[in-house]
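Prompt: For my understanding, could you write out one protein's sequence and backbone structure tokens?
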Amino acid sequence: MSLFDDFETDMQDTFFNPEEFAFEVLWNGFPILAVPEEEKNIFNPEPGVYESTDIYNIMQSDLDKYELEKPEPETHVVVDTKSRLVKSVYEKFGCLKVEFYRNRY
């Protein structure tokens, strides 16, 4: 067994515990577990302009279960009942870190 095989096995065993830090959200109408990041991301891309973002960590396997596509930047995802514009998506070990614009829809 290679190191890559070990990583694949670990990714299959990754989970979010709803009793500790994850909660259920409706992602494009389907219930999945999400872990929001507490940090409020506010940055100044140019003088006089401020942008802020919200970040949700989700499992790729939850999207696969409902045959939902991985979110892409500059597309919309409905989280609970609010349409959100995706800023960026980072994938690591079967988890997706999805960053949404807070002040753009």
The helical segments are 3-12, 60-65. The longest strand covers residues 49-59. The chain is about 15% helix and 50% strand.
